[in-house]
Predict the 3D structure of the following.
Amino acid sequence: MYSLSSSATCVLVTLPLNFNRYDEIDLVPSEPADGCQPIVNSVLMHGQVALLQRGMCSFAEKSWRAQEAGAVAVMIYDSDENNDHRWIDMVRDGDGFDVVIPSMFVLGKEGWRIARGIQEAGTRVATIKIPVNESYVSVYDYYPGTLW
């Protein structure tokens, strides 16, 4: 199995990840990549972390679709593959999606590197470790512009 490690920095916006539990887990690119329609590779995604590309629908809808496909967490990367500094606010948009799994954002440059690494390795998943500093702000207490 292909192992991919990254120095990507992630910001959590829902429930905090239990990093001991997710120390090694498969990262599964969503089909379709944007996760705005029903996810067709749900069998592969079940019990794993979904990798989705930003754009076309809300973060809440993407996370909900991944959750419905059986993912235990969601990593959303920016659609701008040159973005290596601009963070995106993942705010709850109040559209009725009941998301209970953790979701995180990765800068575009890192996300595209991860997605390409999986594709170039010829695999459908990558076993990952998520080496991040955990930040937790409840979506109910978060407002755009709040410092993390």
